[in-house]
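Per your request, structure below.
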């Protein structure tokens, strides 16, 4: 809207005159909003709903949520492969198993559905750690819970599933005392200090994909709500596609042509049918992305997170470019590569502890 008004004003008069009118117009608009409109909306019941009639800013997210809810419910009701739901339910069961005062009967409202879902997914997939974890948690659950019609029915389904191959590793809750506590705060602090946003990369050599996979594996260790991990990493190391992608990002003026590869962090809203969970993908993907950038830095691979603001047009362009589903959208882009020798880094002094922290 601002660009349209600016172009119209430029047609009317000189650049300087039109710029002054343009600035004054939006100053007046913001003054009306701040002094009159927003106080009314915030203090009078019902006016918040009317605001959405005049503003379409949230329409894109609403449409995305509807598509996500449709996909989630379809998968749930049609007994199709839903790894999000399996991870969530197995995580809930595992939390029940590690409680100090564990109940002898729990998870009655979802244990049967979880067992059926596990059976379905195991029939479609080869053995992997994710499914081994599901198996071990279910096996542990059935070994410690008391008899109950719902539990007995689910247990019967589970015992009739083909046994998993013998493994030396068991994926069940374990004691904190078994953890290696040989951690160094100073080493971690040094790594965090060393990681800076690199904007100029060498085009001579790209990091091997095996190194990127290592970093993404570490990214996957980040915490996420009920272990649903509502995100994926699209690694774009094709030069032409990387160029198109980097030019879509905001804030890349002056260095977009120096980006050899990009990781698009894609959020997936279809992990839950609840509207209250619609922002999980932003939080969980951001946690994982920080792990990713630190892992890259540990291997001397530079990176730079690129802002991806709310922009309906760019979202659509990116969705077409990467063939995204309607319930997926970019959370951020991460440029990566080997830093160009002698390229400059921003000092970017951070907030002091007094501005970062408040107790109680």
């Amino acid at each position: 809207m601002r660009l349209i008004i600016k172009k119209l004003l430029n047609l009317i008069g000189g650049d300087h005159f039109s710029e002054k009118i343009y600035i004054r117009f939006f100053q007046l608009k913001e003054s009306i909003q701040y002094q009159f409109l927003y106080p009314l909306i915030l203090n009078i019941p019902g006016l918040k709903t009317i605001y959405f009639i005049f503003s379409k800013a949230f329409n894109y997210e609403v449409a995305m949520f509807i598509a996500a809810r449709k996909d989630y419910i379809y998968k749930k009701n049609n007994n199709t492969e839903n790894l999000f739901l399996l991870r969530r339910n197995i995580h809930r069961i595992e939390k029940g198993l590690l409680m100090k005062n564990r109940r002898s009967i729990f998870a009655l409202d979802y244990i049967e559905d979880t067992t059926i879902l596990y059976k379905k997914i195991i029939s479609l997939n080869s053995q992997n750690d994710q499914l081994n974890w599901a198996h071990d948690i279910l096996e542990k659950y059935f070994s410690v819970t008391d008899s109950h019609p719902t539990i007995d029915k689910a247990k019967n389904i589970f015992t009739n599933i083909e046994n998993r191959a013998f493994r030396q590793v068991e994926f069940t809750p374990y004691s904190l005392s078994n953890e290696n506590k040989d951690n160094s705060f100073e080493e971690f602090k040094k790594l965090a200090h060393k990681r800076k946003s690199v904007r100029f990369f060498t085009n001579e050599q790209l990091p091997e994909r095996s190194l990127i996979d290592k970093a993404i594996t570490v990214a996957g260790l980040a915490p996420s709500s009920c272990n649903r991990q509502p995100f994926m990493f699209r690694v774009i190391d094709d030069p032409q596609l990387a160029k198109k992608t980097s030019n879509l990002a905001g804030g890349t003026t002056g260095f977009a042509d120096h980006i050899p590869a990009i990781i698009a962090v894609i959020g997936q809203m279809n992990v839950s049918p609840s509207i209250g969970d619609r922002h999980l993908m932003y939080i969980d993907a951001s946690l994982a992305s920080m792990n990713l950038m630190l892992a890259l830095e540990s291997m001397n691979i530079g990176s730079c997170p690129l802002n991806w603001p709310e922009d309906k047009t760019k979202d659509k362009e990116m969705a077409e470019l990467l063939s995204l589903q309607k319930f997926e959208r970019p959370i951020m882009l991460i440029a990566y590569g080997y830093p160009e020798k002698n390229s400059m880094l921003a000092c970017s002094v951070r907030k002091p502890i007094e501005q970062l922290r408040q107790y109680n």
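The chain has 14 helices and four strands.

Regards,
D.
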